[in-house]
Amino acid sequence: MTLIETPVPDGMELVYGYPQSLTDVGTHYCPGCVHGIVHRLVAEVLDELGVRENTIGVAPVGCSVLIYNYIKTDFVEAAHGRAPAMATGIKRVLPDRVVFTYQGDGDIAAIGTAEIIHAANRGERITTVFINNAIYGMTGGQMAPTTLPDMVTTSTPTGRDCNIAGYPVRLSEILAQTAGAVYITRQSALDIPGIRRTKKAIKRAFLAQMHGLGFACVEVLATCPTNWNLGAWEALQWSKKNLGAYYPLETFRMTDDVKALEV
To answer: Which of 81, 150, 154, 262 has the largest count of CB atoms under 10 Å?
Structure first.
């Protein structure tokens, strides 16, 4: 499907273009951050499904708080961690709308833990895109629930001590155990094959909602070059090696109805 209306010379086919659902603005994200990549994937999926004008996004607190500057849908902004609760209310009042939350690990797996688990357990017909870079990005690089063992952050300068701080939270594995979840998967935006798989996962998650099947969440392994004190390329490789080892790329729950969806 063509994503934009662009004049194409006779005999040629447009196979890739700028998504209609993506705004034409400069990014505020740090060099090497993959938030922008995932924003584009969401925009492409909205275009391909033809639901942009019927979609409401819920913005979080965190680096991705300004997602409403990049995607041309209606947006509301939730208090820290409360995006699933707000999305639940919107979807129940406007059941014909496509409603999604876009959340970082500090937002979804710390102050928002109760909201996301109970939304999944109730089987709310919403879609969540969860960006995991194992750190609090916007507030200065502190330890997050997803921070790896021995990982250095501004609040754990000698590394995360699991005897004191506990162990990193594997949120997707937890959500997959809830009765109302129909699709829970972990993907990555760290290389081209991973980005392609992530787009398919996001599309499947939106389709699950559009067919009224239940709660769907796509976790995406990401980077934070600035707070990791790494260059853009080094951050990608570090994330593949270290985050990928603790957080395996896997689909943890996919019901037969979701599996049957044409993506």
So the answer is: 81
